[in-house]
Design goal:
The N and C termini lie far apart (71 Å). The chain is 42% helix and 21% strand. With 145 residues, the protein is of the alpha/beta class. 22% of the residues are buried.
């Protein structure tokens, strides 16, 4: 009788802990963000995947249309073969689409293309909205296209 009572108490406590963890994990990302990522290289795709599996609505753009076609069809980046691209992650060939109505806009393009990419994006970024560049070696830096 003692063991049955002890086991019931243990199972009840375990269930309470499990429910608490589930509630905590649901609260971690209560706001689903609409995120546009300019750049589908290894850095852009790593950010895109992380943000997508965290529950955000992520759209990725590349200046190379064939790259978008390949990523959309294979769901694998050629330089990240072990990383599966989630089905929820979307791709576009349109700078306007990746920039319009986004909560967050990330620039993940090689440094030599930042200026030209920002110029392409500028007409579609809302006035007063800030964007972010994610340099690989340093902290994030605010950028206004």
């Amino acid at each position: 009788m003692y063991n049955e009572t002890r086991r019931a108490a243990h199972c009840g406590a375990q269930q309470a802990r499990d429910e608490s963890r589930a509630a905590d994990s649901e609260d971690l990302n209560v706001t689903k963000r609409k995120i546009g990522i300019l750049g589908a290289g290894t850095w852009g795709m790593a950010l895109a995947r992380m943000l997508c599996v965290s529950g955000n609505d992520v759209l990725v753009w590349s200046a190379i249309e064939k790259e978008i076609d390949a990523l959309s069809s294979t769901r694998v980046h050629p330089n990240l073969p072990g990383m599966k691209i989630p089905e929820e992650l979307r791709f576009t060939k349109s700078v306007e689409e990746v920039c319009r109505d986004k909560d967050i806009l990330l620039f993940a393009v090689p440094s030599v293309f930042v200026r030209s990419t920002a110029a392409k994006a500028r007409p579609y970024v809302a006035e007063g909205r800030s964007s972010w560049m994610w340099p690989r070696a340093s902290s994030r830096t605010p950028c206004t296209p």
